Every structure is written in C-alpha cells, then in structure tokens.
Amino acid sequence: MRLKATAHVLAIAGLLLGATALTIPAFAQEKTITGGFDVGPGGFPKNFNPLAATGGFTWLKTYFEPLVIYNADLSALEGDLATEYTVSDDQLTYTFKLAEETWHDGQPFTSKDVKFTIELASNPASGSVFAGRLKAISSVEAPDDRTVVLKLSKADGGLLSILAQLMILPEHALGSMAPESLATSTWWSTTPIGTGPFKFTKYVTDQYVELAADDDYRLGRPKVDHLINRYFENAAAAVAALRAGEIQFTYVEPDDAKTFDGNADFRVIEGDSFVVNYIGFNQKVDLWKDERVRQAVMYAIDRNAIIESLYGGAAKAAQCGYVAPHLVPQGLNDYAYDPEKAKALLAEAGWDKINGDKPITWLTYYGTPLAANVMAAIQAMLAQVGINVVPRVVDVPTYNGIVYQDTNPDWNEFPLIYAGLQNGPNPAGINAGLNKSQLPPNGANIMRIEFDDLSAAFDAALGETDATQVDAKWQDVCRVMNKDLPWATMWVANRYGVASNNLVDFVWTPAPAGGPYADHPERWDIK
Prior knowledge:
The protein is α+β, with helices and mostly antiparallel strands. The protein has two domains: 32-248 and 502-526, Periplasmic binding protein-like II (D-Maltodextrin-Binding Protein, domain 2, 3-Layer(aba) Sandwich), CATH 3.40.190; 272-494, Dipeptide-binding Protein, Domain 3 (Dipeptide-binding Protein, domain 3), CATH 3.10.105. Helix content is 25%, strand content 21%. The protein is built from 17 helices and 19 strands. The chain has helices at residues 57-60, 111-121, 159-163, 171-174, 179-182, 187-190, 235-243, 254-258, 291-300, 303-309, 339-349, 351-354, 369-385, 396-403, 431-434, 452-463, 470-484; strands at 32-35, 68-70, 77-79, 82-87, 93-98, 137-144, 147-152, 198-204, 208-213, 226-230, 249-252, 266-281, 315-317, 360-364, 389-393, 416-422, 487-500, 503-504, 525-526. α9 packs antiparallel against α11 and α16 runs antiparallel to α17 (470-484). The longest helix is centred in the C-terminal third of the chain and has 17 residues, at 369-385. The radius of gyration is 23 Å and the shape is globular. It comes from Paradevosia tibetensis. It is found in: Periplasm. Its main location: periplasm. GO terms for molecular function: peptide transmembrane transporter activity. This is ABC transporter substrate-binding protein.
C-alpha cells in the first residue's frame, strides 16, 4: 500500500501550575496561540523526552515528527516525515521514502536520523518505552539519504501505529550521548531540535513552554509566530483561563464541557478517547492469583450506575479491552452488577485467609475530580463485598517510577492500580500492557501478566497477514480477556476539549495518549 505524506503536527497548548504569579511573554505585532494541550486537564510539565513519553504527543508533535501519522479522524495512517511507504506482501519488509527537510539548527534530515532513532528506541538502556514494542524489527537499513528499509523477524500488525508515536530524533545532536544518560539529560527541556513547524525556544519551569515558527518548514511557514503551552494545577484553573481569554484551548472534564453548551464564543469538541480504563491486578502479589477473586471485583462494581451518574452517560462499559463492535464477539460475560455473587466467589476463594479486610493500596495517576469521584464510588462498592481498597494518587513521573521498576521492586507499593491504555484506533495498542513479551523494563506490562492463552491470542492477531481475518483474531483476544480477567475492564469514556472561536483552521481530535495525528499546526491562525 502506498501513502502520500500530508502530515502534520499537533498542538498548541498549555497550562499554568500553582498559584504563583505567571508572566507570559508579549510579542508586539506577532500572533500567538496559547493553550492547554499537553496531557489532559492540567498538563504534565516534565513530559519532554518523546522516547519516555506515555502521552502528550499532541504537544510534542509541534516540534518533533514521526515517520507516519494518523489522519485527523484517526481512520487511516498517512506519511509525515515519510512521503510514502510500502509494505511487502508477507509484511516483513517496510520501505519508507523520506521528505526533504532540515532540523531546526539547519542540518539536513536524512535516513541516518531514522536509523539512529529506531535503534535508540529499541535499546532499553535509553529509558525508551518503545523497546519491547519494536522487538519484531531485525534490522534498519539506510541505503541512501532518502530511503529507510525495516526488516522484521515476524509480522507485526501494530508496527505502523507504534511508529506513529515514535518521534524522529537528530543523530548529529544525540549520537555522541550514552543511551543511559538520555533519560536524565537536560537537552529535552533546554535545547531540543526537531523538524516540526515550530522551534523550541524556552521552558519556564512548571509554568509554560514557548515555541517559535520555523520559517523554513517544508509545508510552509506557520501562520502564527508563537505557540505557548501553559501548565495548570488543575482542570478548573485551565477552564478559568479559557473563559478569561488567557488561553484559546484546553482539555475539559465532561461536567465542564456542558457549561460551554450554547456559548457562541467557544466550540465544544467531543469524541471517543480510544482509551480503556481498567483496574489492574498485580500478578506478583498473591491477592489476585485466584480467578474467582478477579471475577468478584467485576461483579462488585456497578459500572452502569457510575457511567450514568458520574460520566453523564458519555462512556461505554467494556467487557474486554475493546468496545468497538467489530472487535467484540457475541457471547461475552457482561459481569452485570451482582454483589451477592461477588461475596460468594470471595468466600469460595477463601478471601478471609488471603487478605480479609486488610487495606489494599490502589495506585493511580488520575488526579482529576471526576477520577476521584469514580474511585470513591468503586471503593464503596468493593467495601460492601469485603474488599478494602485505599486510593493513592501520585503524579505521572512518580507513578511511572513505581510501576516500571525492575530492580528489587516493592510489589506491595502497587498491588492494584486504576489506569488507562490505548485500545485504538489500532487494537494492537493494548498488547504492550498485557503480553508476557512486554514485561518491564522493555515493555509496558506493568501488572506482570503472564497468561499463556492471552499472549498466544495477541501473537496470533499481531501476526495475521490476511486482512479478512484480522478482526476475528482480535475478537479472540477479547474472548480471552473476558474469560481470564487479566484486568477488571471498566469503560471507554468520551473525551472533551473546548476551543475559542477566535481560532481559525484549528484541528483537535480526542486521541489516545494525545495522538499524534495530522492536525497541521502550520495552518492554525487566530483572529
């Protein structure tokens, strides 16, 4: 298949952290778009290294770029730094033709940069979250400056989606650094060099990032001169700044989105988050070894009541990792709310001896009021059947430091989690969190799930080369998830953003992990 490159960048954005005074630069006679476009309401002011990022690609994509990218409605992949690509019939050879572009320091972008980036991202010493996901690549060849050839040891139906989140990095700037030093390097937040439509100019700690237009960008100089991404302490502060005209866009919670209905000054954007929220059972602790205990958790939670009362109906209950009809087979257990059944299962499993009413830490990085209310509701429901969970909310860096640890980890720090993982638009997204081949430090299987039937189902789906059989293979994954319950899958919720009507040709899509997707920031303008 062949693909023309029409790609581009995502982002504007920003958010203000804390109550301290904030001074945003004023640019006389220059156009500036300011927003909250990082990692959901509030943002994540330490999210600069795209090799380690688990979200926020909307913003990172304004100055870095991947080879390929989803289109704005997330229905198909197209080229970005690759002008086109071809895949062999056996899906073992991928050939990319590269765009003519320069790095922000004027050096030429070539195939050497792509080779360097893929090999670096495949090296767990770099702190890359892609290491386990790129295992199928056996070699990266750069036969000339404008061509890259990937050879695979086995077919991988998720590879292009993974490459869509892998930002290409400059070999000439990073090649001399030891891979293990990159994770803590200040380069990412001081002098990063990309190929996108905007250049990184300044980061004011925990307050904002400032970018400037790249006059030489291959798709044309951006219409605005500056993008500013502000960081906020919470979603309410971001909404207040939006209403005050200080920013032109932010993610919002469902309840906040409703308050903008009918307001002629703003546009509410709603769509599928493509993220499945789940309760994760750490398989390294004995609490969850018995399948009946995991089933009891599902039966104890009235998901439909939570969806209606807290999400206002803007979510779909998930019986596996997916809710898309073509991925969900008939005959699944819907785990309808049944606290008496939950109690009976716990009694059969001997829960009193396994744990009884001892408190169980329930770790999450979700710090929004909505998430707090959801977890409180679940906590009360689980308490009714004899499972005593205690929520612990931490920021994203702390969370990642806990769950990805692979040297003498303290499993009791995270026996249970509340999290989300990309479940689309390519269903291969959740493979990283469930396949036994994806255990940390190389992968994102943070619950250390090593279920043979589940891993075999994932491998079969990823290796399917007959397009007419792919959906059936992912339905098999769904069946195994529903039966074995590696996670207690909750729901897939909608996601919301609000944009000022002063923005012109502005594109935002509620994308998993913040995309990236082709939103063309070089075309954005402001009245």
